Amino acid sequence: MKRNYKLQISYDGTRFYGWERQPNKEMTIQGKLESVLTKMTNAPDDDPVNVNGSGRTDAGVHARGMVASVVLDTDMTEDEIQEYMNKYLPEDISVNEVRACSERFHARYNALGKTYRYTCWYGTSKPVFDRKYVLVLEEKPDVDKMREAALLLIGTHDFKSFCGNKKMKKSTVRCVDAINIEESGNYIRFYFHGNGFLQNMVRILTGTLLEVGYGNIPVSDIKGILEACDRQKAGPTAPPEGLCLMKVDY
Amino acid sequence: MKRNYKLQISYDGTRFYGWERQPNKEMTIQGKLESVLTKMTNAPDDDPVNVNGSGRTDAGVHARGMVASVVLDTDMTEDEIQEYMNKYLPEDISVNEVRACSERFHARYNALGKTYRYTCWYGTSKPVFDRKYVLVLEEKPDVDKMREAALLLIGTHDFKSFCGNKKMKKSTVRCVDAINIEESGNYIRFYFHGNGFLQNMVRILTGTLLEVGYGNIPVSDIKGILEACDRQKAGPTAPPEGLCLMKVDY
């Protein structure tokens, strides 16, 4: 029986070329999910299973709460689907939940908001056990300054300066309603919540905030960086390993 | 100037053939530490640096609090030694502390006790982010039964049934003064504290407790297993990835 399903997925992005299926690249999250589900449902070659993610994550970016929707023609129960997927997916992809849902549900079109976390680490030792999930900083940035700058980035703005896609033709206006910077031991974690994020946007926001924290960009420049609508004005794109998609709101 | 140093070290044991230096095996923790320190101090080839660990960990076993002692001929400060080591050691070995200490201090001979943790995980999803640091269980074992059995293992006993070294000629009597089994979410963590542990002992204790938890070994058999002094009577050796040396007491 054909039904629409909502999947909640975690993955360690280290080994993958990102979420999106790509020709000749076997290691993508979407590609792995689709090939397991195509096999599971014996879908014909000319009509393979198509998994719709809530968005794309870049190569090397992780997820704890990616949501995807997929139409499956199967008599299996939700639990059986989850068990099958976890058995045949590689150990760095986990399906945490499978729920039958309205046929109108679409993981991307219906997403109302997303939470991303960017994790940094500093210290005289090394983060041996989560080295693939943090950005190691040479020294501690000024967190108060970063919080001041974050306040100026919150709100509905044209985030073109923070967009990694130079050819972006659609609107680059987004609403970021929260940026929280939490300190815990040797960790500094940036939490971003908004209605949507442009390509590389969270990583460029983080890279810019870190430049503020190191005194390379004054807090007073933030307004001008936003207004410039010029990627060259913002800070560098922070590397992918610190980033994790935490939650998608519907 | 020649001085004795106490090192506190963490490592992700996944890629290593264990702590102990071995001929023709480059990937050992002791070997990595010694080669970095030999280079740092320009020690002569016929008198390379010798690092003494508090004990040996098996291939694939991790440590958060390994302690080692080493005599170094250097004018560098403790902080400089730590910085040099962390710079040249691979990313899966971290030196957390370097302290000059009495020349009489020896990490193995002076160790009074050790804490090991064995981490298990069960559930319908998969532990994507710490998959290399846990044993994934097919189903949840009976924790109360395991706690009952653990009480019978606590104390000073001949642990020959729990020793992986068949040729062990020295005493196999050890004192295990605490075995705590903690549940948190999908995790079950076994904490072992004792004055010393035989080869594979923590892994065989864990493997035996899990058999109790699955009903394959009755709690009432534990006393007999200890008394038998026969490795064949105890449960299997739990795999290395769940094990971590947490702390060494002096």
UniProtKB/TrEMBL annotation, chains A, B:
Signal peptide: none
Molecular functions per Gene Ontology: RNA binding; tRNA pseudouridine(38-40) synthase activity
Enzyme kind, highest EC tier: isomerase
Superkingdom assignment: Bacteria
Alphabetized Gene3D superfamilies for the sequence: Pseudouridine synthase I, catalytic domain, C-terminal subdomain, Pseudouridine synthase I, catalytic domain, N-terminal subdomain
Single biological process term from Gene Ontology: tRNA pseudouridine synthesis
Record protein name field: tRNA pseudouridine synthase A
